[in-house]
UniProtKB/TrEMBL annotation, chains A, B:
Record keyword Lyase present: yes
Family: Belongs to the group II decarboxylase family.
Top-level taxonomic group: Eukaryota
Keywords attached to this entry: Decarboxylase, Lyase, Pyridoxal phosphate
InterPro entries in UniProt: Aromatic_deC, PyrdxlP-dep_de-COase, PyrdxlP-dep_Trfase, PyrdxlP-dep_Trfase_major, PyrdxlP-dep_Trfase_small, Pyridoxal-P_BS
Organism listed in the record: Xanthoceras sorbifolium
PROSITE patterns found in the cross-reference section: DDC_GAD_HDC_YDC
Protein name: Tryptophan decarboxylase
Pfam families attached to this UniProt entry: Pyridoxal_deC (PF00282)
Length: 504, 504
């Protein structure tokens, strides 16, 4: 924006929203603000203690007409925003799955923002498309995926990877590819006959994606699992369910198998499930959002055995590969099925490279049109740390979880509910008295509430097989052994107080 | 991550991916790198001049095992990445719609990244949810939207706004809400009878969203427009198409009206279209991705007349309100219809505030589960600049487009193809000779190719009503009058050379 020689608006000639020197000044101030925040992050309660509606009363009803100073805004962030933050980066955050971060990803994200390139097609920013292709092949290499999932193994119509925002979108786009491929054969009016499969442990986003895609809610199978099988999906039960559907005149479409479920990190056995699914022409997607990252270590790679038989795989580096939100990597063997279902060809985006079929246009691999240059983050992570350090990082988290698991085993008032496989420990207090299961559940609810109300650590719960349990998820980037030790002491203190009270 | 007292892996004890002092150092370096890039951005060719596959040959096939230095990576960004960038922030970028940026949004984005809060529900980061509610109400105020689109006008089941990634998602989620509301009444097996409506100028993402939602491709109406009506959708033709569908036993579902189409910024008349749609119980969405932002100025607000009669409205501040990608604001009157269609209730996300119904859980307003703290960007923009400067910004762009329009009018070899309404000028070279339309199209194609091959500016084209035209989109944040003047001189030079050649 500049001065307006022919303007009837004489005001506003001096508004420069991106003056490089003002940019430099404010961005440096923000770097220090953030570094200071990271330094003192342990001083804040992990779980925000504000009440619903706290912010509305603190802020004006309308935006200001005139500018306010950056210094005033920074003060308001301290005063009004930070109290309402649940500090996901705190080393005392053990809830959900932590969202992991790193300096490399932060500066990579700054660079992505800086260029603000809208890489819907190759020409709109060739580097954005090509770096994503390179980085997705690099990650595929680290995971020892078959060549069929890599660009270097085929061509633009073959295998390759793409960065989605979330697992939800990875599931949605592959489901649409599978759906349209099948409806092309059996006719669009058969959409109500399509059946999709997951277990009762599959992430809720699977059901949501299926509904978005127009799958009849009655045809979304949530196959029961049991504690005895570690909450993993049984191939023989899966086969029976599919057979019953086929016998009923329905058409099996899509299986979402999970490597590392959200509740307990259960692993569905990819190899035997894929064999069943392939017998029926079912598209197999593997959701390895959390645990897939562990498979860059040889000792965990076996959880992906059978991956050569599936159609698509997704994992989210924001969960365990230090990338910040949001970054979900999706690989497919047959990208042409995605492109057939998702491509658009408006005139205003037509260009010679796209028409040459020599390039990838990522808009045809995703829901939206516009897309950011996210591969910069992954590129900076992989180069700044190297594969060796990323493996160390995974192993360190797993070892801290093992340590916590050891604490649980040594205290007779506690028990592990399912075996630990990665960096999540599922446990509960169970004083092995004559109390019934409702009472035990209630004790655990009270323990969790007490722990979180202290603001010193944050844990979450789940219910599996009817059992209410607490989840101790190691993985916050700043977490060290001392935090795990202190967390365990706090949990024990809570148990002491609770059991003492319940005995009184 | 820390040292591992009980570890069987003794290596890797010193890998700290988020050491605050290392963070401070690298982030400061990156700020200077970016400020320098912004300072010298005019020295790069706007449109990248690399060939397909350029990057693959420059980078290794696999990631490094060991860390590489930040200095080396920065050098490689200069050497390998920047040549492949199409510089969307260049003041000489006049293609598509420019993606606008600002210092305030950049530092806001840094802060969003910093917290990395995954605000799927209120408790997961109360500030993230509540600031988004406040900011969406602020913007609604600036646009003079009716109270029914604001949180302050209703409650959690009523009106309000949410930040989506892209227009595609805004259309998809509202379409799903409309679809499921209707299928609840007429039965899920009627999905193949649902009909959706747009014009032949509606963004391609509308068709894509409809296909994602399982709408039969045969039932997606792309109603023709004409140059005489400025490519806007005619309410009377719309009514006839709907009547024919009803007569054929089909069920009208959803209308996407556009305020500011991508090709030519045509405006569909919201008020009379809404009257027709409401007669048939059709959900009306207004896609104002680009031009909606202009409506913060009183002189443009009339383009939203009738907005009180529609169900939902989206606009993308990354297009004209300086926000960087990706940021699409969606307002709905009846958020409960979104929530009914999109909510998930997995046990591991259950919590007291959500169950109290006193809070908004934004995961139920969008496709994915996880979500970033994007409202920080908008909050910083609105406070740092104030409404007055944002209005100045819009007017300044419009005035620069008017100036360019004036240049076209004064040169008899050129013509405006449609009247300019905002900051886009649609023009073509037309030497008014006896040459046919194919020849004129060819001249314009050649002119565009020549202009873009210089690397000095970047323009794109479209075809409307059978006419091939060039789009001059003013709006890059750094653009000043001198850039528009220089661009016009370059275009004239191209025309001189081209017409001279064609006469020889």
């Amino acid at each position: 924006m500049g001065s307006l020689i022919n303007s009837d608006v004489t005001e506003g000639c001096d508004f420069k929203p991106l003056d490089p020197e003002e940019f430099r000044k404010q961005a440096h101030q923000m770097v220090d603000f953030i570094a200071d925040y990271y330094q003192k992050i342990e001083s804040y309660p992990v779980l925000s203690q504000v009440q619903p509606g706290y912010l509305h009363s603190r802020l004006p009803e309308t935006p200001p007409d005139e500018p306010e100073s950056f210094e005033k805004i920074l003060k308001d962030i301290e005063k009004d925003i930070i109290p309402g933050i649940t500090h996901w980066l705190s080393p005392n955050f053990f809830a959900f799955f932590p969202a992991t971060v790193s300096t490399a990803a932060f500066v990579g994200e700054m660079l992505c923002t800086c260029f603000n390139s809208v890489g819907f097609n190759w020409l709109a920013s060739p580097a954005a498309t090509e770096l994503e292709m390179v980085v997705m092949d690099w990650l595929a290499n680290m995971l020892k995926l078959p060549q069929t999932f890599m660009f270097s193994g085929g061509g633009t119509a073959g295998g390759g990877g793409v960065i989605q925002n979330t697992t939800s979108e990875a599931v949605l786009v592959t489901l649409i590819a599978a759906r349209d491929q099948l409806l092309d054969v059996i006719g669009v009016e058969s959409i109500c006959k399509l059946v999709v499969y997951g277990s009762d442990q599959t992430h809720s986003t699977f059901t949501k994606a299926c509904k978005l895609a127009g799958i009849d809610a009655c045809n979304i199978r949530s196959i029961p699992t049991t504690i005895e099988s570690g909450f993993s999906l049984s191939p023989s039960i899966f086969r029976k369910v599919v057979e019953a559907d086929v016998a009923a005149g329905l058409v099996p479409l899509y299986l979402c198998a999970t490597v590392g479920t959200t509740s307990t990190t259960a692993v569905d056995p990819v190899d035997p499930l894929a064999k069943v699914a392939n017998d029926y022409g079912i598209w197999i997607h593997v959701d390895a959002a959390y645990a897939g990252s562990a498979c860059i270590c040889p000792e965990f790679r076996h959880y992906l055995n059978g991956i050569d038989q599936v159609h698509s795989l997704s994992l989210s580096p924001h969960k365990w590969l230090l990338s910040y939100l949001d970054c979900c990597c999706l690989w497919v063997k047959d990208s042409s099925s995605l492109v057939r279902a998702l491509n658009t060809q408006p005139e205003y985006l037509r260009n010679k490279p796209s028409e040459s079929n020599e390039v990838v246009d990522y808009k045809d691999w995703q829901v939206g049109t516009g897309r950011r240059f996210k591969s910069l983050r992954l590129w900076l992570i992989l180069r700044s740390y190297g594969v060796v350090n990323l493996q160390r990082h995974i192993r360190s988290d797993v070892n801290m979880a093992k340590m916590f698991e050891g604490f649980i085993r040594l205290d007779p008032r506690f028990e592990l509910v399912v075996p630990r496989q990665f960096s999540l420990v599922c446990f509960r207090i169970n004083p092995k008295s004559h109390y019934g299961s409702n009472y035990i559940d209630m004790l655990n609810r009270k323990l969790l509430e007490w722990i979180n109300s202290t603001g010193r650590i944050y844990l979450t719960h789940t219910i599996v097989g009817g059992v209410y349990l607490l989840r101790f998820a190691v993985g916050a980037t700043l977490c060290e052994e001392r935090h795990v030790v202190a967390a365990w002491k706090l949990i024990k203190d809570g148990a002491d107080a609770l059991l003492k009270r319940s005995e009184e």
